[in-house]
């Protein structure tokens, strides 16, 4: 049956003029200390619902400027909108807290309660935000403040350890310890930039400089498995308000965001696109008008227009990657399955499709030495980058790992859900972790990343069940499926100190395989890959209009390089990112940020791996002062140093250094 395509609702024209109020003071969870906020208030004579964002990307910085188009968009359509600086950031009082500390969540609850009580508010509150703002949205919703009635989390996370700092419980790489640590220093140490804010809060800023501790210190001092991380996890099962969740297939928080969507106990919708870590409306690939859908979501849930009692909406709109790329909609995520396509790994390096009723082959063991330089070709899909870093051809990395490849597929295969690997380890395994990838191998032997997952092998049994990241990807007929097993995934993970070996149990011959229980199979077991095959009949095509592009960003000059030195057997990665906001009608920058992260990993001595990250953020204040915040990070396997300095009009105003060994 051919289903008619769904058309997304058009953007509603603006209905109201907007009054801007800067430096609104809101009580924090700390008695006597307040948070600073920007308020966008529609000029109306009646009360309106309010939308709240609590973010570490300060309101007078790159984060707030980038979000301003959406803040105004919602306000023009009848909502009061608050963008609030986190505790110790911008004009908010206090000293910056660690990521997702209990006080940060309590601040969010305090903001919701304050906003609901304002004379211009109906008492109904929505909360939303991208990245850190998405995380605070989920965390506050899990606390269930009565005034909070709906949420719109965009690429947030629920487990700060496993989603960000230490992926899969292993020491993280340049994402947290490089990019985000630099950004945290810039946001915390930059003084208030607006004229009135500078006058009122200069003493607050000077006091903050002396007490500031960077996110890097918190991440470094709390290794994988530390009790502090469990205290900061969000239980998405506690969220009972209608939730419009946004995830990116190539985003570092894809797994956590979709898991949160599945756990939320309320009417909910999912939007999942082919994005890196960016707002969907301005994504360079597959842009999507999420602000339009969010406004419709607010209209529905903040104005009391509920569906009939007892209904529980769980629709999902998502992008099919690979062959026949398109937007589709299903009644749920994951969509209905036709079947699980199960493949078994063989000694010859082939993946054989299992078939019911066949006799299994005898079992063998294959081994491979871990290569600590593997992973860079997977791109920056697990990093906080927004415009560049999509996966490259995995072929060269595949050649350095254990791989198992299927025959050409006789028909297209729609993978929709979480691929799963039943990994059977043999004697001789010394690797401390295993990185598993599924790739799509085309006719030119290019290997295109579909999904990946990581498991810590320390203390594991011989049989390890691994769930890979959720995805929706169609493999074309004639293409092959490849299972890749590696020990490294740089720059997402810090390399293991010593290369290990993976010994994997597989079948000897090419016969079909039946995954019987161990007691039925007399101990003969082999590694298998299971791909959830979606039912195309359960999907409806969606017509997505191209969002309007506008903004004040200047030209982009980003750089991403991967250099392999075959003589020295090492690899070096360089990621340089430039962001700038310009004065309207002028070629000068009033905000600019440049960061560069270099990671070098020697193949035969990974304990000598080293990361150096440097950057600066410059700002020109309305009264002509030029402020520069510079930061540097030097990190090895067992030592690290962080430096920071502030210059005002070329004169050093502040400098500090942190060291750990």
UniProtKB/TrEMBL annotation:
Residues 295-539 form the Xaa-Pro dipeptidyl-peptidase C-terminal domain. InterPro entries: AB_hydrolase_fold, CocE/Ser_esterase, FrsA_esterase, Galactose-bd-like_sf, Xaa-Pro-like_dom, Xaa-Pro_dipept_C. Pfam families: Peptidase_S15, PepX_C. It comes from the Bacteria. Signal peptide: none annotated. One of its GO terms (molecular function) is carboxylic ester hydrolase activity. The keyword Endoplasmic reticulum does not apply. The keyword Hydrolase applies. Keywords: Hydrolase. Belongs to the AB hydrolase superfamily. This is Xaa-Pro dipeptidyl-peptidase C-terminal domain-containing protein. It comes from Amycolatopsis vastitatis.
